[in-house]
Amino acid sequence: MIDRQALADELVAGLAGPADTPISPSNPVYPVLKQLGLPSYPYDPAQAQRLMADAGWTKGADGMFHPTAGGPPLSMSVAVRGTGSFGANNLREVQGVVSLYRSAGIDATVTSTGGGGVLQREAESTNRGMFGLPLRESHSSFLIYRSDQIGTAPQWNGGNFAGYSNPEYDRLYNASLLAFDLGERNKLLAGALKLLAEDAVAVNMFYDMGQQTVVFRKGIRGPIPSSPLQNAAAWNIHTWEMD
Predict the structure, then answer these.
(1) Distance (Å, rounded) from C-alpha 153 to C-alpha 204?
(2) In total, how many domains does the chain have?
(3) Quick one: which of 12, 24, 185, 216 has the fewest CB in 10 Å?
């Protein structure tokens, strides 16, 4: 339903492609995840329309999906943190997503959260639409999908805004945090990420190439892309040469 390549072309000048998982192909966990059978969801408007019809939704004269039996169009709120240093960029990205959903036939709108504190956490935890946010591919980032991170009153702590709960995900992710062997840790994390893809917990839009981009002036030799596991572009600065 969503042309994620078109979104990447608009927002990051085509420097990234659609993402089927939060980790990029340069991450050492990625090939393990592919071997396990990472599901992919290519852009297929016709299939999306068939699935919507199976669920009881058909497009009306206004181009929006309505219940086949009649009724108002399918609506969805997409929440986003529109304040702070990254607020403007977050809003721009979510507005692009909302525009594509509306073009596809869903009456999507943007809801900006902010202000901090309990009220913001409550608004984000009780939102029953989508929540748009950037996600780094560090191991600790995937804590937000663990069931004990679902926010509850009165403090609404935790980043699991979708309320996702899967005991097998919890088990695999927790085991990956305790694994000392690198191969075993990568396999456990890959298994957890495969569950996220199978359960369609999130709609991963595109990879953020800013995490692996190194910019330097002419005449400097030595900078290379850093690992997504270590966002330190100057890690080998002691070997650089300069004219």
Answers:
(1) 28
(2) 1
(3) 216
